[in-house]
Fold these 4 entries.
Entry 1:
Amino acid sequence: MSYDHHHPADPSAVSSELPERFLSAFWRIHRRLRAGTLSQDGHQITRVQWLILRQLKRTEQCTIGQLADRMEVRPSTMSQMLDRLERERWVERVTSSEDSRVRLIRLTDSGRGFIRSVEGLWRDRLSPALAVLTPQEQATLVDLLARVAQASGGSGV
């Protein structure tokens, strides 16, 4: 019996081979998306800084402590990371209108623009690859990946 790469005859081969195939495919896609995308217009940011920007996009604004909790770092570490993002003018610290002792972090227009440019590059890079799937297959793929991410403890940051 010949070996079919997509449907192995031995079900135990799936259990040992599937995680490796999944990770290999995942990292190939990840590398393709990341290649040069976090450096735009002479700006270079780290993956963690990118995650901070994405978190702020979702929440609109939050405190340093809330961001630190979500990213699982100390507030002092978060403050240092925000200093760099603030120097780039992607985030700003503002006083809360509800409590003048509280400083909130939020995206600037420039920060939102940077996120849009990176996301646009990612869409451009993913579109040809996703085009090999039908719209229904694309939706199924996204749903399945979301389930795997949730089951693996992915925080969505």
Entry 2:
Amino acid sequence: MAYYPIFVELRDRPCLVVGGGPEAQRKVEGLLGGEAKVTVVAPKLTKPLQKMLAGGEIDCIQREYQEGDIDPYHIVMVATDDGAVNNEISAEGRRKRIWVNAADDIPNCDFILPSVIRRGAITLAASTGGASPALARRLREELEAYLTEEMPALADLLKEVRGDLRSRSIVPDAEVWQEAIDEELRVLLAQRKYRQAKTRLLTSLGAEELVPELVGSSNGESA
């Protein structure tokens, strides 16, 4: 199979998880991380899923899956050990043009789930195309080591400065941005010297004249 990697906006979109065991729980946690509206279909739930239901984080139809259950949903994730159920829901989804993922069952998947790391505004994903979940997990662990503490702050700073410059019709080219994201900038952020970091970034981008307006006259850090 050939997969095209994308990030899908799921905030407030209705998603269905079929199954109530540990794998279903992981699917639910991932969907909630994307701020989806999650409903679970299963006769029994793990204790954490029961707690999510009691807390109003998810909805639940407490019975076995029935044909037509997928109709109101944008995405369906199947987490059962029953290949026949996987096949049934996958076939129904394809008839109705609803994306279905079946855990550890590639032929019944319209999409697969990568290993994901989230740190603030940064999301990294690693996939082996379903060939080896163990390798995908290993890649995720190595990416976690790469995402050092200052990375989320760096993402926030770049977003802020990019917005400041675009509002003034200043658009540095890609190479200038790359050169500006240097080791010293990251060190300043790791030391939580945000104003100094912003000053350095603006200067590196050739917008030092904006420092008094956007950062202030003092290079000291606010309390």
Entry 3:
Amino acid sequence: MSTASSSSHRHELANGIKAELPIALGVIPFGLIYGVLALAGGLPPALAQAMSAIVFAGSAQFIAAQLIGAGAPGVILLLTTFIVNLRHLLYSASLSPYTKHLPARWRWLLAYLLTDEAFAVTVLHYDGETAVSPNRHYYFLGAGMTLWVAWQTSTAVGIFLGAQIPASWSLDFTLALTFIGLVVPVLKDRPNLGAALSAGLAAVFANGLPFKLGLMVAALTGILVGVWLENLSSQQKESL
């Protein structure tokens, strides 16, 4: 490996870490809360931590912990978390043009590290590039690993110390703030805006459904509206 190539690797990795750090700090309370909820739902500490390491999907873990605590049937648990995580297919499709040339080991690693937070900073960086770096995947790696470390650490702290955190701190509010910070920068066109608004409205109206099924309804609504508007935009461009 040449000195220039090694320097480029480090540069991209460092930039990915720096871009992800502010979001990773906002995710820490999210991890603390998950640790507490997992134990409250009846998960042993080792299994709760293993879920963070294996699943590594905060929203799905939150939903799973609550459904387990509510005694939801296994099929509801699997279907709900599957629907909620369908958005990762859209993330993958967006990043595929930037990663399809990589060896399989890299694609598998980056797929594992793909989260809402890592996707947000990575796709914005890639879309805004003025010069394409052959080592741009290290930016993705830096962002993903930063979030991974923050999530595993905060989950562990939540499992072992979270019960001692005063409820008055209202850490659960940081979850909403984190996702607002992720969503707002990408609401630049009609499909994204329509998907966000329709999913939000669906979540409000379906909030009373049992077993958190309102989240499934909201996720499906947002996906369908977003895809429909994207296809509509494409047809309008082709007709011009």
Entry 4:
Amino acid sequence: MNLANRITLARIFLVPVVMIFLLVQFDNLGSFKVGGVHITYSECIAAIVFIIAAITDGLDGYIARSRKMVTNLGKFLDPLADKLLISAVLISLVEMQRLDAWVAVVIISREFAVTGLRLVAAAEGLVIAASKLGKWKTVLQIVAVAALILQNFPFETWHFPFATIMVWAAVIMTIVSGVEYFLKNKKVIPLA
């Protein structure tokens, strides 16, 4: 197994670590208060691990391409790791009542729809590469999720709704990039 695939696997193994620090109450770690909101150090750890895991998404792809290490295993694991990470955290944020369920449904549905499109294309020997809008979507989702984990810290100090703005931006870009994938690749969709 090459380095790029090991990094991708590390991202998969970081998903339960994020979940543990996000969902389990570690009262002994303590907390701090910002603008009327209590943020636990456990949430800070969850955010840091989430960001590290998210960064590995770009890192494994860069290493695979630059060192000519692109493999079928990597092509399978990389999108799987991305979906696991973002879906697990979104569902957790819904459970914690920090995110409306419809937002998680829209984002997760788009991820599965585009994955399905890619599978149909792959069956026909075609590869659907990530678009610029798709990459922006990923960045906005990561920023939005991190802001939600940290309960809008540090922006809560100034009562600036950064997390809410990022969630809306992520939802809009998720929809726009999903539509773009389907419009650009409509030839792949079999008509009954």
